[in-house]
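Fold this complex.
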Amino acid sequence: MKRVWTYIFLIVGGIIFAYPFLWMISASFKPEIEIGTIGLWSSDFSLRSYQAVMQKIPIWRALLNSLFVSGCVTLSVIVFGSIVGYALSRLRFFGRDFILGVILFTMVIPFQITLIPMYILMVKFGWVDSYAALIVPGMIGAFGILLFRQFFLDIPQDLVDAARIDGCNDLRILFGIFYPLSKPVIITVGIIAFMGSWNDVLWPLIVIRIRDLMTMPQMVTLFAVGGQAEAQLGAELAAATLLAVPIILVYAFFQRYFIESMATTGLKN
Amino acid sequence: MKKRSQKIRNNDSAGYLMSLPYIIYFCLFIGFPLVFSFILIFHKWNIITPMEWVGLRNFVRLFRDIQFFKSIQNTLKFLIIHIPLQITVALLLAVLLNQKIKARGFFRALYFLPVIVSGVVITLLWRQLYAYDTGLLNTLLTHLGFARIPWITEPEWAMPSIAIMATWKNVGLYVVLFLVGLQGIPRYMYEAAEMDGAKAYQQFFYITLPALNSTMVLVIILSTIGGFSLFIEPFVMTGGGPINSTLSAMLYIYNQAFYFGHMGYAATLGFFFAFIVLAVVLIQKKFVERKD
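Structure:
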């Protein structure tokens, strides 16, 4: 009996979390007057709302921008994070623990302090309205370095010694020997970096004003609040659906990695 | 001997070289902004005209800025509703999921879904759910015979509504964190309690909750930091209205900087606000964390 109640609760919970998404996707295909209905079915499904979105904003361009920016950020966080993580875990040099301390310290600085000066820096570099402003400040993350360092600490020293005797330098050891062993941590760091970059809106809103360089969340936001949607609910929901679908698709295949990655970063903090 | 010192120095230089990306990054994007923010708070500046030294006038202005304190109050109101709600729901779902049930992974994945989706999507979606006349929630309420609720059109309701939405978005992450914590509690503790005749709720309050203390600290701190950066939800949902009831501190700082162009003042607000965040987190840590 108790078991039954557990399932009922879990299923009700599942409906509460999943139904709004299903409703949104369905509503984006419904005609405007049917959007207020609770049901998912309509006899008049069409692509009108999507056509309205594509007419008003260059949404595909925004999708490409987002993919490019998040791709560069993710790749770079992995490469630089692992290089620095390697130095901090496998090399001995004066000041190493100091650098590690600094990294840990930076994690407690609230971003509210640095936000305005960062914007001014972008202005001074002439990076406002450029990909550089979106990519460069995100190229290294403290969390990436720390996760790589933690993982590399557990790799046996014998492997490193053997490779040194074969004449490998540190980069060869890192990319040739450590990388094949490090899939879990690479995936974790990659997912966290990608999600952070893909879903960020505040920073793009600050540094990008030109439509052709806008990221997708930014463009959808401005579409909805900037009056371009002209109170067409269908178009708003279609834009939101276009923004949600890529990440939901990736999530559907890799949900276990997503959940584990985000849980580890939560716990590491 | 010579060879040995040579080797160490080589190793040293490799270490510095490989740490260089971070050192450059730190100087440019952390060190410089920190120092520069300290300079900015004593200046009046709109970026275009030269900086003007104003001494402590930004702070004087800050302490007289009723809107800013209102925005902090709004943010705190958000946190006071959001955090307890989130902990209750997350704990409930985590305890349910921690039993021997089928399809646990499936439910976990469902609850986690809103966590990965952009806050913009969530807010646009909930704006429709909350709409007064045609919104899904009010339609549901009227079908069930209740009155409509002015979710985002009345000042008393708007911030609680955003807090409910934020809970719906984030709770999946905390379910997972609590699940990790729950799985770390040894079974024999419950078995022993059962032999002593402890009821289910007693087991929960005397075994489960104390054992989850470190997870609890983590959950509270993470949701506090997240809550203090509340920005895109009110930006999209209400624009800060009605009557500034959802104007969050971050939204206010954003407006000061990028709508009015008051860079110096906005930097001062950010500086001050960051200290509030740190102070609140430290106080929470002190009161919630138990050392044993």
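Chain A touches chain B through 87 residues (CB under 8 Å).
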